[in-house]
Amino acid sequence: MARYLAVRLLHAVVTVWAAFTLSFLMLYLLPGDPVTIMLGGAGGSGDASPAQVAALRSAYGFDKPVPTQYADRLWAALHGDFGTSLQTGDTVAHTFATAVPQTLALAGAALLLAAVLGLGTALVATATHSARLSRLLLTAPSVGVSLPQFAVGLVLLQLLSFHWRLLPAFGDPTGLGLILPAVTLALPTASVLAQVFAQSLADALDEPYVTTARAKGAGRARVQLRHAACNAALPLLSLGGLVAGNLLAGSVVVETVFSRDGFGRITAAAVAAKDIPVVQGAVVVGAVVFAAVNLAVDLVNPLLDPRLAQRARRTPERSSRRWLRARST
Amino acid sequence: MAESTIDLSVRTPEPAPAEQEQSPDRAARLRAGARRRLRSWLRQPGLVLAVLVLLTVLAWALAPGLFAPRDPLRADPAHIFEPPGPGAWFGTDYLGRDLYSRVVHGASLSLRAPVVAVALGLVSGTTVGLLAGALGGWVDALLMRAVDVLLAIPGILVSLAVVTALGFGTVHVAVAVGLASLPGFARITRAQVLRVLGEPYVEAATASGVRRPVVLLTHVLPNVRGPVLSLAALELGTAVLAVAALGFLGFGAQPPTPEWGSMVSEGRDYLGDYWWFTTLPGLTLALVTLSVNRIARSVTHRRTH
């Protein structure tokens, strides 16, 4: 088990490191001259003197060879230093440290909503006696993933805030004002959860233990809720990283639509201003969230599912690979 | 599901020349098959509607002038903020520009970028997956770890980083969205390549002395096609949304060029008073995405069942 933990932890660390490296390659090497881009984006268009350019270049270390730049940046990043924002002069770490809690509240509310909505849809669709209702509920998720999030947010704002004046449009970031952004952010995630849970429920209902439970006289509701649903919920856990990534990525659009401060809005503003250090910080934060949630899932999963715990103790060679090798010799 | 995928790959790749001659019997059978398919197709009203929507929008993209003769860029100060009506189907905006014309003329850009994005993701992802699956060893490990990294960063953040590096504009947005879709294609191609490499006909080709690259291109690639193209169909809907979202954030086509995402964003400031400004372009976008996804689902369904 300790070996399993160590491997998972190493995997998470490597993922974050690789994301850092990839973002370094994309943001600092791809553009040709990051200094020109930053100067072009930060408002000044061509009015920077050569001396200013040179000062900026040496301040960011662009006058050094690339491997040195990379090593310096990685070393600084390991100490939590991702550089300073070009727009505000604040450190990137501090910028995100103040922004992330707001996004966390939004994402948490959205996750709760998505879970209730998604799992509820799948449960009702499976349990109902009406074929029509079931079909309707099973097609709803595919509509949910097809709707453009920003347009959904704007239409909700328009109807509920401006037309019917039921909910505040902006301001009030924690109370009633949280409802509309959370609903907008939750929709695609709820759709994904509903699709996966409905499939996994259908699979679970085909299992022998369901037949056994029925044969022993368990009612329909008991079979579905107690026997099938519990087992069917396990695969949802492995979606954890994806869901967290979706919510974080969705915050870029949703926070812009609802003018909420947070991770997403800061990222969008940084891209608009070509604020390269902040954009890199955002990529790394995204990878950290994904890796951390996946690590947590990997750790919790064997506790919930004894079969996985058993598999974690052994480290079998992937069967396809073994088979191929056997064929090629 | 897995079984039927294998079924697809086992079918004879090339009919012998003699069989290609169309005997009257065979032609009749083909016609009957086509008629049956058309009938089962017409029984699904959702699918028919989706195809109609997509055909309309494609026609808009190909010949916008035919459907909306008014200039999408011409301002008309006398008719600002006109609600939808017979004169202007989608109303007019803050400059008096006809929104219907703008939506029609925006179709070309709004669709071209996602198609380019998926094509880029398809070609690059398939190449990576093919190399990884075929070469194996450290190449496989290296390529797939790189793909894993790309998967670990949420797609929109990858796209935003690319857009920051390359600059704004429709082409760069297409590249950015394409890169974000690479991992999916690479993974599915690799899995399929590994499956096909174990098939007897690959072994037969190798045994009869066909060189490895030729085996890959003529025997492996054609048999990997099905699932990969299904994924491409599904990715197209995602790409339409991603391109529109980047356009909405202001990183795509710059105003006054009509593009659906940026049109919705332009209407944001007038949300309370002029509903049509954001709602109608947004609705068009939603309808198109729904249609693309509906068609993609039926294509995937046909392939797997």
Automatic annotation (TrEMBL), chain A:
Membrane topology of the entry: Multi-pass membrane protein
Record's keyword annotation contains Oxidoreductase: no
This protein's name: ABC transporter permease
Similarity-based family: Belongs to the binding-protein-dependent transport system permease family.
TM annotation in the entry: 9-30, 104-124, 136-164, 176-198, 232-258, 278-304
Highest taxon, organism lineage: Bacteria
Entry keyword Cell cycle: no
Pfam families linked to this entry: BPD_transp_1, BPD_transp_1_N
Ranges of residues in domain ABC transmembrane type-1: 100-301
Keywords: Cell membrane, Membrane, Transmembrane, Transmembrane helix, Transport
Subcellular location: Cell membrane
UniProtKB/TrEMBL annotation, chain B:
PROSITE patterns the UniProt entry points to: ABC_TM1
Region described as Disordered: spans on this chain: 1-26
Keyword Acetylation: no
Keyword field: Cell membrane, Membrane, Transmembrane, Transmembrane helix, Transport
CDD domains in the record: TM_PBP2
Family as reported in the entry's similarity comment: Belongs to the binding-protein-dependent transport system permease family.
Protein name: ABC transporter permease
Gene source species: Streptacidiphilus cavernicola
